[in-house]
Amino acid sequence: MNPPRVALAGFYGRGNFGDDLAAVLFGLFLKRIRVPVRVYKLCASLSGEFGLEAARTADELLDDAQLLVWGGGGLLAPWADRTYGLLYPGVAEEYDSLIGAALRRGVPLSALSVGGTGAYPSPLTPRYKQRLLESATYVSVRNPQDLALLARHRVAGDYFPDVVWQTATQFPAERTRSDRRRIGIDVYPSNLLRQKALHLAAWLQLIVWKRRDCEFVLLDTTNARVKAYRGLGVLVRGRNARTYQFHDLRQDLQVLASLDLMVTTRLHAWMACVGYGVPAISLAGEKKTTLLLENLRMEDACFGRGRSGRFLRLMLSKDRLERFLRDFPFPDVARLRAESDGHFRRLSELLETLGRRVPPWPGKCR
Fold it and tell me: In this structure, how many other beta carbons lie within 10 angstroms of the beta carbon of residue 34?
């Protein structure tokens, strides 16, 4: 018999670096084990480059599907309905409709490498999050704290480190060196405004002006094919600063690997950089990011409220910054990468339980 077809869904095709990267990682894994897959709304540039079939509608995604997998992202992170609706108009309703269509068709649901913030109100909002959680036959999570939520809902599941730890293995990139320290700044005025930390934009401008011995790359990790540039380059200027917006996954990852330091508000940009051996600072990070750093016992790389002054002093002092880079407390990336294979292993096992022929799981993702 033929292998089952997988419908792969997530917060894809909306320009988010971490979600689209997870789609590619799961899609390439399924291709390696010769399981047909359609990916919901993955942008044409990624689906074309990696040979993944994209589906534009729920009906197209679910046609002949034997399993719906929600792959990666903050599925378990709660959002106020009003805030979510303002930021992503119509998206919650779209995903709710997708889950409803899968349930009506009798397609089993699962979620892999998803996470939350460590705080889990009941019910999860928007509604599609709670609905998927209650309907899932299996969920693998990226934070050990998320297991309590699965237990509350009696959902079978496991904890493995985030699938994005696989990035450097799947997409090797050479570390390049330059005469000046190259510092990436992946910070967004809109995020700073929401967190009442807009003063950090002025501080980052000061750092760019004072540290003329460094080259600054003002990043926007949102896909340029989806949204226009929204990074700090709209506010910060300097002869030693340039802007870069993500647009090509392989090239984007090479840019990350070329940095000497990353300063970011984002979870997966931080993770990808550390995976490439690049020291990374979480500045005004969201709770999901601070949760990761707490779990890794890397609070010293997290500069949130109460530590922003220390961040400024660090960045303005050449000697302090050099010591920070030299002594950066990298986690055991090899272990995290090996253990994150668990998401792929469980996916292979889920497919086997469908009673169809599935090629053997190939072990570590390569």
Answer: 11
Q: How far is CA 265 from CA 37, 272, 295, in A?
A: 32, 13, 17
Q: Count other C-beta atoms under 10 Å from residue 181's C-beta.
A: 18
Spatial neighbors of 193 by CB under 8 A, at least 6 apart, are none
For helices 267-275 and 17-32, what crossing angle results, to 10°? 60
What are the structure tokens assigned to 283, written together? 């500045």
Residue-wise pLDDT tens digits, 166-218:
999 999 998 777 789 999 999 999 888 888 888 999 999 999 999 999 999 99
Q: What are phi and psi of 193, to 5 degrees?
A: -65, -45
Statement: residue 366 has pLDDT above 50: no
Q: What integer is the mean pLDDT of 253-257? A: 97
* Closest C-alpha among 5, 106, 137 to residue 65: 5
133 within 8 A of 153, measured Cβ to Cβ: yes
Q: DSSP letters along 137-201, please?
A: EEEEESSGGGHHHHHHTT--EEE---GGGGHHHHS-------SSEEEEEE--HHHHHHTT-THHH
CA distance 124 to 156: 18
Q: Is the pLDDT of residue 364 over 80?
A: no
What's the one-letter identity of residue 142?
R
The answer to whether the pTM exceeds 0.85 is yes
Q: Please state whether beta strands 37-40 and 53-55 pair in parallel, antiparallel, or not at all (unpaired).
A: parallel
Residues 6 or more apart whose Cβ sits within 8 Å of residue 86: none
Output the six-digit token pair for 113. Answer: 């490498």
Number of residues written out for the chain: 366
Residue pLDDT, tens place only, 49-79 = 999 999 999 999 999 999 999 999 999 999 9
